[in-house]
Each structure stands twice: as structure tokens, then as C-alpha cells.
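Observation: inputs received (chain + nicotinamide-adenine-dinucleotide).
Thought: call the complex predictor directly.
Action: predict_structure
Action Input:
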Amino acid sequence: MDLGLTGRTALVAAASRGLGKAIAWELAREGAAVAICARGKEQLKQTAAEIAQDTGSRVLALAADVSVARDVFSLVDAVMQHLGGIDILVNNAGGPPPGPFLTFSDEDWRAALDLNLLSAVRLSRAVIPHMQQCGWGRIINLTSVAAKQPIPDLVLSNAARSGVIGLSKTLALELAASGITVNSVCPGFILTDRVRQLFRARAEKEGHSVQEIQKSYERQIPQGRLGRPQELAALVAFLASEQAGYITGTAIQLDGGYVRGLF
Ligand code: NAD
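Observation:
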């Protein structure tokens, strides 16, 4: 299926590795010109070169910390200048630290909200006026299954991600008549470097092998396996497509059946 993304421009936040990288790659493969950001330059430049070489699409690498307001403004400015617009915005960032509620200060909460909620607020605010002018846009917010089924020991993430779902739904309604769709995707356990690192840390702490830790996660997933970044990227590319024009305000989990609730 041709997703109609040739000639479109996309900004994928936090995309030097992991889910963001897989999404940028998929959009580039579908013919979009893509801008990616992350805090560090080295890995980012390497990722951009890899994607550009494989897909032949234009890939712009811009260092930016999405939890910092001024970085977000200059990032969006630079993408507009270089790519001439942003048709597709994928809001993504790193994850906040785990831990029990009473261990976190106001500062920790502010940092988590800056990273996982305000980054999406600021990026959307900077990009939406341009999408409104064009009468076309796709905003896809990367959250987590934690927004549908809170994960123990991840209170910062559980709270911030639910905020993003509320933001996403509200924006979807506000923008529905202007050709802009807004959706959230909620990944379950997808095998990225970050998840591999989490398994290694737990294995060390609990005295088990990494394989045993991975198996303990797989047992909680009805399909019995972790997801692949490419599977998530395919969903995001579809939500960005011409064909997905009537899908807005949804929060779709991609989790092998992990979430037990009805919605
Ligand atoms: P990852 O660590 O593999 O990649 C994170 C990317 O974000 C990297 O490119 C990193 O450089 C960049 N980044 C981190 N903080 C940033 C910042 N402040 N500004 C700009 N770039 C920043 O992680 P991932 O597994 O790809 O996860 C991406 C997001 O999805 C995270 O918020 C994570 O919590 C969430 N998530 C992941 C999973 C999963 O199973 N992988 C599941 C649910 C939610």
C-alpha cells in the first residue's frame, strides 16, 4: 500500500536510537523527508547517515533536548528552514526514572513532566500553526501502555503519559475541522537498547541471567514475546498516512495483548 508520504516532511523527536529511530526510518522509507533530534550529536549524525543511505530520503540531524523550551523553539525553526515545513510531528522523548512515589521530589516531578508532557505541548504548539496554514497535519504522540494500565514502580511515567493522552484527545477535537489528526500510540514492551539495558540491570540486581529476566516479561504478554521497533514504526507510519485521515483522538496500544482492560 502506498501511504502517500512521498514529498511529506516529518519531525521525529528523540530519534537517535530505539523507537524514534525505527519510526524515522519507516517514514523515510515511505518517501518523507525527515528531521530527527536527540541531545548528543555523534550518535544522531550516524543514525541520520544510516537512514539516508538506506532509503535515499533526506534526513536532517539536529541536536536538541526536548525537555528544554528554548531547544524546542530553535529545533522547530531549524526544521522549517531546512525542510520547508512539518507535515508530520512525532512527539517522543526518553523515559523518567523508576521508583516508589515517596522518593520523588517536586524537582523530579518537574523534570518528568518537562520530558514527557511539556515536550509534546511545546512541540505541538510550535508546529500546529503551520499545519493549520497547510490544512493538513499528523501529530502522533508516543506514550506507553502505562497510560492504560499503570506499571508498578513507574509513577512518574504513569502520570505523565496519562497527561499526554488527555492532551492528545483535546487537541484532536480542537483541530478536527482543520485537516489535522492527533493520535497516541502506547507501546508495551518493545525490544530496544533501553529495554535490553533494563533487563541487564535487573539481571545483575536479582542474580538471574538476562534471558531469565526477558522470559519473565514475556510470560506477562499473551503473545509470549516482546515487540519489534519496526512493528511500532509501521503503526506510526500508517497513522501518518493519507489513508488514516479519518482516524483521530485514538490511543492505540501495540503490546501483544499486554493491556487487560477493554479500552
Ligand atoms: P531509547 O533509550 O532506546 O531511545 C530514546 C531516544 O530518545 C534516544 O535517541 C535518546 O537519545 C533520545 N532522548 C532521550 N532523552 C531526550 C531528550 N531529553 N531530548 C531529546 N532526545 C532525547 O528508548 P526507547 O525504548 O526508544 O523509548 C522511547 C520512549 O518510549 C521513552 O519515553 C520510553 O519510556 C517509551 N516507551 C518505550 C517502551 C519500550 O518498550 N521500548 C515501552 C513504552 C514506552
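Thought: report the result.
Final Answer: The CA atoms of residues 89 and 124 lie 8 Å apart. The longest strand covers residues 180-187.
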